[in-house]
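Q: What structure does this chain adopt?
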Amino acid sequence: MVAYGFKPTFVVDIQERIKRQTIRLPRRRHARPEERVQLFQGMRTKACRKIIPDPVCIGVDRLIIDTRSGKLDHVEVNGIVLPLGSDELAAFARADGFGRSDLPPVEVFGRWWAMVHGRVLHEDLVLIRWEDRP
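A:
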């Protein structure tokens, strides 16, 4: 079983099942489809706590994100480009926890990503998606 840590900003969206995915850099081992994942806030601290009961991974996808301009310029999942301004890209941003603002989710996602991860082209990201199962 693989564990992922989240910033406090995302905890409520995970608890309310709004955020159903996470974007990660490559590492030795990510979750695999049909495997349960653990979602924590405050990992490696005394305040560490599980956010929700362990959901099941339903997909692990290759992801490319370009924020070199300081906003979201390009998103590609498994070689499929999500067009800027499309409903698919808005749904992607909401599923990643960027749907609570009055601003468009894609705009908030792009600004946050550029601020936290820099204005760069990330060509080696991994998108992990999950769902609740008994």
